[in-house]
Amino acid sequence: MARTDRVGRVIAAPPEVVYGALLNREALEAWLPPEGMRGRIERWDPRPGGGFRMVLTYLDPSGSPGKTSDATDVVDIGFADLVPNERVVQRAVFEADDPSFAGTMTMTWHLAAAGDGTEVTVTAADVPPGIDQAAHETGIASSLASLASYVEAAG
């Protein structure tokens, strides 16, 4: 059965600043990897129909075996929809031999003005069953916290 995970938070930056950080290669490399990981973008094409390939490396792989190798998760992200300052829809496919990580997960980053900031809600639909829900939601929350730190420090 398809699963949907959802995490949100308010970020003290306007929607246009948050949206910009969702479509900037250097910004994504800085804030997208969850705590305990680092990321490197190998391919970059920020337009609808384009996308990117990110290699996420565990800083300590002993407790978190990767999906692609013992120390890495490699994910191909396609941009399905880009609505400036409102929404980024991504289609994510992990490179993995384990069929429990197969399939395309849709990640929707919804931005809504909230006072002087932005309420960011991330909805992950069709999450592969091999991805633990609690760990996934914790990872998304970690990325959102890093996004907040990144854009709030820039503003």
Automatic annotation (TrEMBL):
Residues 12-152 form the Activator of Hsp90 ATPase homologue 1/2-like C-terminal domain. Pfam families: AHSA1. It comes from the Bacteria. Belongs to the AHA1 family. This is Uncharacterized conserved protein YndB, AHSA1/START domain.
